[in-house]
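Re: beginner question about structure tokens

> Can someone show what the tokenized structure looks like for a real chain? I only ever see the sequence side.

Sure, here's an example I had lying around. Input first:
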Amino acid sequence: MKPSTKLIRLKSIKAVLSKFFNNGWIKEKFWNNIHIKIDKEVKQGANESDIDKLLGLIDQTSFIGFRDAVAIKLMYRTGIRIKTLAELRERHIDVENQCLSLDGSTLKNHKFLKLPIDEELVAMLKMLINLNDGIRHHFGTDNSNVFITQNGLYMNTSKSSNCAISKQLNKYSKRFGLENINAHAIRRAYAKNLLNRGASIALISKALGHSDLAVTTQYLDIDIEEVATNLRDFL
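And the corresponding structure tokens:
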């Protein structure tokens, strides 16, 4: 029997025993100390070649296409989550200093974070904001979101992170036959790209807004040969 199957059955048994405990039929929760460890499946990051291919295939002459291209580039070059992307406001873009200044309200760990962006992204974001102004004026909507729908509305309408950009990525993946193209895979690609350029795990963890280094190491998906090669430099 696989460890994952054992874990599922153990959870079911624990649920039944917890009911017994709540009814007073069992005096102690002896099952709390029973655990089954399993290796978590490591999700792969997106390939840079697939991201470049996707950007080349998207029709950026349309508002939706251009918006999506800006979103993809921003996620790949900053590693921000899809929920943060949907909640990004114009005030979060520091054009003069070329960075994103994200307050705690947009981040999972609720801590302030600054992330650098290059001139190309600044120019694209400024162009997107100008397009947004025209769309909001036409539909009579009022918001300062950087990424909006074609009707000028706020993209996140629920607590779910399944916003319009996320749905578009899923469509592009199927339409163009690109595997592993989604917001989370792009975020992992950002982390791996930083590692390949020599950034420390601690720095990458800060950039991703992680509170635990263990989460960051899962993102990096370092294979055995890569570990051996890198460790040799410290011998």
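Each token stands for a local structural state, so reading them left to right follows the chain. The two ends are 41 Å apart (CA to CA).
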